[in-house]
Design brief:
Two copies of one chain form a homodimer.
Chain A: E1 2-10, E2 14-16, H1 23-26, H2 37-43, E3 46-50, H3 51-60, E4 69-73, E5 87-91, H4 95-105, E6 109-113, H5 115-123, E7 127-135, E8 137-138, E9 143-144, E10 153-162, E11 168-174
Parallel strand pairs in A: 1-6, 1-7, 3-4, 3-6, 4-5
Antiparallel strand pairs in A: 2-9, 7-11, 10-11
Chain lengths: 176, 176
């Protein structure tokens, strides 16, 4: 199993403002691109995210992951609505245990989402690719994408794609 | 007076590691570009930086600012070596007072450097342009480029320039 990150941040590196506020993202001009999201989701075999991220996704009322299996890192069972179109289950496992479970199920490429989950998978050395879409705004505080590490992580730039509306998408491969 | 920022950061937004460590920057492959530094310095009329940044620059033993006047934000007098090739003076002023002093001296375009100085000039609404050169490395902790704000700051992307060695230079204009 190897993990990829696909996420949007402010220029100062936050994935959400205080209290999870996403107005800086949802209120911004999205242009006419999906920023490769559909193609990226099609490339993964499963998703892993924290409970906060899952609850946020559910609250949007939109389901964008089709029937990809979703592992929600939580000790509480999920309260899925009737007619829920996806496949989601909660589990309370470390990143390496999640990786082992994915291997057992033959799930090779996993999309990890949410600040804490991304940071823990990075620290565990399980992230191979990072795709960041950076918006041209400083929000000053909130939930950071990155966090403390035990050692530097070297990356290689795969591509940098600027969009008409000033968003930039950079793709990196983890090399160490 | 209007200020510009020209600085390098890690992908996780640090301008230096813990204790000011710059190995991630000075030890990285710089490629064969100066990343527009000489042209940028030529475009400014003066520099403003904090005491830590100034002391760091002095410790490098290299003087890259020619005879541009440098305002060092410090309450202590500078201890300049004999034969110091530049023009530097310490002053203990707020960003707006620095701006007023620059206006009085006819210094229009100012290069602000160092984390605290950049953040205070951003909060004071004095920064018009931000040029960030981002290296493909995560260092986990250290001195962040950006800090808390009273309100979001909207930017416009001027250009995004990827370099052969994986460094990316993004230039933004402050729009609000």
């Amino acid at each position: 199993m190897h993990a990829s990150v696909y996420i949007a941040t402010s220029l100062d590196g936050f994935i959400a403002g205080e209290d999870g506020d996403l107005e800086w993202l949802t209120g911004a001009d999205p242009g006419d691109s999906d920023y490769g999201f559909a193609e990226f989701v099609a490339s993964v075999d499963a998703l892993v995210m924290g409970r906060n991220t899952f609850d946020f996704v559910m609250a949007t009322g939109e389901w964008v992951y089709g029937d990809k299996p979703i592992f929600v890192l939580s000790h509480r069972p999920l309260d899925l609505p009737n007619g829920f179109p996806g496949r989601a289950e909660s589990m309370e496992l470390s990143p390496h245990a999640v990786a082992a479970e994915c291997d057992r199920r033959g799930l090779d490429h996993v999309y990890v989402d949410g600040g804490e989950t991304i940071q823990s998978f990075l620290r565990a050395g399980l992230v191979r690719r990072i795709i960041i879409t950076r918006l041209p705004v400083l929000i000053g505080s909130g939930i950071p994408l990155f966090g403390p590490l035990r050692a530097d992580i070297d990356l290689a730039l795969v591509r940098s794609t600027p969009y008409e509306n000033g968003w930039i998408q950079d793709e990196y491969e983890v090399v160490s």
